[in-house]
Design brief:
Blueprint: H1 20-23, E1 30-38, E2 45-49, E3 57-59, E4 72-79, E5 86-95, E6 100-108, E7 111-118, E8 121-127, E9 140-147, E10 155-164, H2 169-179, H3 188-197, E11 209-211, E12 218-221, E13 230-237, E14 240-248, H4 250-253, H5 259-267, E15 271-272, E16 277-278, H6 283-289, E17 297-307, E18 313-324, E19 327-330, H7 331-339, H8 343-349, H9 353-372, E20 383-388, E21 393-399, H10 404-426, E22 433-435, H11 441-453, H12 466-476, H13 482-492, E23 497-499, H14 523-536, H15 543-583, E24 590-599, E25 602-607, E26 613-617, E27 626-629, E28 634-637, E29 643-645, E30 649-658, E31 663-669
Parallel strand pairs: 3-5, 8-10, 11-18, 12-19
Antiparallel strand pairs: 1-2, 1-4, 2-3, 4-5, 6-7, 6-9, 7-8, 9-10, 13-14, 14-17, 15-16, 17-18, 20-21, 22-23, 24-25, 24-30, 25-26, 27-28, 28-29, 30-31
């Protein structure tokens, strides 16, 4: 047992990082501050600089020191000789990013210790008996940190939640929430402010807010959606089309600096799990006042865009308004009624059917134009969880359907996002952009090698345009390696982020893009609504006002990008958890599948019956020894001629489901 020592309180803490490794290198030429993002299994990390214009900095595990995932750190860095990648060494922890951890409660020499996994290492925290909160030795608990470990000395913490037996869905989701530092409750101040908004009257229609309540607007969403933040309408005009995209006017209710606004900023985005949502806004707003429910008057912000017969924008207008949605429709109803022309679906759609036919005609023109300009059309299938609502359990996991109605809404939202972004930019007003930078040349070179080794005769230029990536996807279409190519193409590209600087959106081949269409669930959209309203008010802004606004938008962009990343990681883990819980019922069962991914430690098999992947470890291949052929991305038998590659059909038995690891294990069988 380690000797007990009181370490520095976390709220004061700026931990100096001791790194002998850094002394072996020539003196770093630069330093900066940023957020440490640790690789979940690799033991290394990346610094996401506070300066959004600076590239990420790679930090090997030996130079991480006592820093943890999510910490704000100071890093010394240099550029690798003969390469462009930045590499660094963490010098100081400026502030800790996590205050809650999940671990197992242990006892030794009458002292309680919580052991928390953190990537490849474990963190140790002493807990006083008075701070156990009912937790028992051997159980999983959630802790709040009072001081962090320093070197080999454990930190101190108190138990704030104990989870008992592992494996229950609610328990495991609670662990995911705590692990990713997600807020679950709104404060009383926020809820009181939201309740007060229920007594606030709708705005009146005047010269600043138009009356669109007679327009044939409809919402189109999934079957289980509860918050409707966009409605659309299309009319044929003068040989072309006019599109209205009406978006919930959240900014009418949520004012800058209010309690709700501060909480929405802190959360950054809503987080969606299978049977639980952690909304950015209180439900009074997200599911009621701001939700564009049919037959109810709602405040909205509208982009009205006129296109000619070829889909070229010939006019646009932006304004506040009142709307009254005519129908709440689903993607399936619209696709069945308009595309498949099924009578039952058409009856449900009713009077909106003629309008939707015009909408589909416009959608097809806009989609064709967007793809022609080079927009990359990723069609990566995602799992869809089918629930048994009565039993409250998962009934099936299938490949999600992306029909023409999904594409129609996506296309109209892209059109609105671009139109608003271009309008605000043309007036030289500060705003938040959704940017997607050009891919790194070194990653493109690696991707080109993979394509060659897989046998695809597609030659990428050193600085490929989006349309070049589209050619790759077209070449891989229908091949067994299609998903692999899509996966590595995505990895070769940068991650889309928010920024106050317009750097374009590479994936969409858009020179000017933003997020305007989901203010109920994304904070940057709410901010853009405010920027647009300032512009429409025609109030002059002083140079000082503009400087302050740009600085504020920079801080919001950095925070929103990080919150988006956290929510995505939590949603991915929750999906893996749902898959593992579902497959527990099939232990010992045999399924048909195909090899979907190859790794050094084994390979992943995707089942035919369920849209699920499980891993086959190399030790399960007892008939021979296999080695990983990285060049051709396959496993080759050492003695025989057998090769396991992407697309290889295989029967597998479910031999293990590890709920804590969120993973399903298979074994090949005949």
């Amino acid at each position: 047992m380690r000797k007990r020592k009181q370490s520095r309180p976390a709220k004061r803490g700026r931990a100096k990082i001791k790194s002998k490794e850094s002394k072996r290198h020539s003196a770093p030429t630069q330093s900066l501050t940023g957020l440490l993002k640790m690789h979940r299994e690799g033991g290394f990390g990346f610094i996401l600089p506070d300066d959004p214009d600076h590239e990420d900095i790679f930090v090997p595990g030996r130079r991480v020191g006592d820093a943890l995932d999510g910490d704000k750190v100071k890093v010394s860095f240099w550029q690798e000789t003969g390469g462009k990648r930045f590499e660094g060494s963490i010098e100081e922890v400026l502030s800790r990013g996590k205050k809650w951890f999940v671990g197992r409660l242990e006892k030794s020499d009458s002292q309680y210790l919580v052991v928390c996994p953190a990537g490849r290492q474990s963190l140790y925290f002493h807990v006083d008996a008075a701070d156990l909160k009912g937790g028992r030795v051997g159980e999983t608990v959630g802790i709040e940190v009072m001081s962090y470990p320093e070197g080999k000395l454990p930190g101190r913490a108190k138990v704030i939640q104990w989870f008992g037996a592992r494996g229950d869905e609610k328990t495991e989701i609670d662990i995911v929430i705590l692990k990713h530092q997600l807020p679950t409750q709104f404060t009383q101040e926020v809820l009181a402010e939201a309740d007060e908004l229920k007594r606030q009257a709708l705005p009146r229609c005047d010269e600043l807010r138009r009356d669109l309540r007679s327009l044939d607007l409809v919402t189109i969403d999934g079957e289980t959606a509860r918050d409707f933040d966009d409605a659309i309408c299309v009319q044929a005009v003068d040989g072309g089309y006019r599109l209205w995209v009406a978006i919930a006017d959240v900014s009418y209710y949520v004012t800058p600096g209010s309690q709700i606004d501060r909480e929405a900023f802190a959360r950054g985005t809503s987080v969606y799990f299978t049977q639980k949502v952690l909304p950015m806004l209180p439900e009074v707003l997200s599911n009621d006042l701001c939700s564009l429910r049919p037959g109810e008057d709602r405040a909205a912000m509208t982009a009205e865009i006129t296109f000619d017969a070829q889909g070229k924008v010939v006019g646009q207008d932006f304004y506040s308004c009142l709307i009254r949605s005519k129908e709440r429709l689903t993607y399936r109803q619209v696709a069945d009624g308009v595309v498949k022309e099924e009578a039952a679906a058409q009856e449900k759609i009713g009077a909106s059917l003629p309008m939707l036919r015009k909408a589909f005609a416009l959608f097809q023109i806009l989609r064709k134009n967007r793809l022609a300009r080079g927009s990359i059309d990723f069609d990566l299938p995602e799992p869809e969880i089918i629930l048994d609502l009565e039993a409250g359990s998962v009934e099936n996991i299938v490949k999600s359907e992306r029909n023409e109605a999904h594409m129609l809404i996506e296309e109209f939202m892209v059109a609105a996002n671009e139109a608003v972004s271009q309008f605000v930019t043309a007036h030289k007003r500060p705003m938040i952009y959704r940017v997607h930078g050009e891919p790194d040349p070194e990653k493109i070179a690696t991707f080109q090698t993979l394509l060659h080794n897989l046998g695809f005769q597609v030659k990428l230029p050193k600085k490929p345009e989006p349309k070049d990536m589209g050619k790759v996807l077209k070449a891989a279409k229908g091949h067994a390696e299609e998903k692999l190519v899509q996966h590595f193409l995505l990895r070769s590209m940068k991650q889309a982020v928010y920024s106050p600087k317009n750097e374009g959106h590479y994936g969409l081949a858009s020179l000017c893009y933003s997020h305007f269409t989901s203010p109920i669930r994304r904070y940057p959209d709410l901010v853009l609504h405010r920027c647009l309203k300032k512009l429409l008010s025609k109030k002059e802004a002083t140079p000082k006002d503009l400087r302050n606004e740009r600085a504020n938008l920079k801080a919001i962009s950095i925070h929103a990008s990080r919150r988006e990343r956290i929510s995505m990681e939590a949603e991915w883990e929750a999906l893996d958890l749902t898959t593992a819980l579902f497959m527990k019922a099939f232990l010992g069962d045999v399924f048909e599948g195909t090899v979907a991914r190859i790794a050094k430690f084994g390979f992943f098999v995707e089942l035919k019956k369920y849209f699920i992947q499980g891993v086959v470890m190399l030790e399960e291949l007892s008939e021979d020894r296999y080695y990983f052929d990285e060049k051709h991305h396959r496993l080759t038998a050492e003695r025989g001629k057998k090769v396991i590659k992407i697309g290889t059909p295989m029967k597998v038995e479910v031999i293990k489901v590890d709920i804590e690891e969120r993973r399903v294990y298979f074994k090949p069988t005949t």
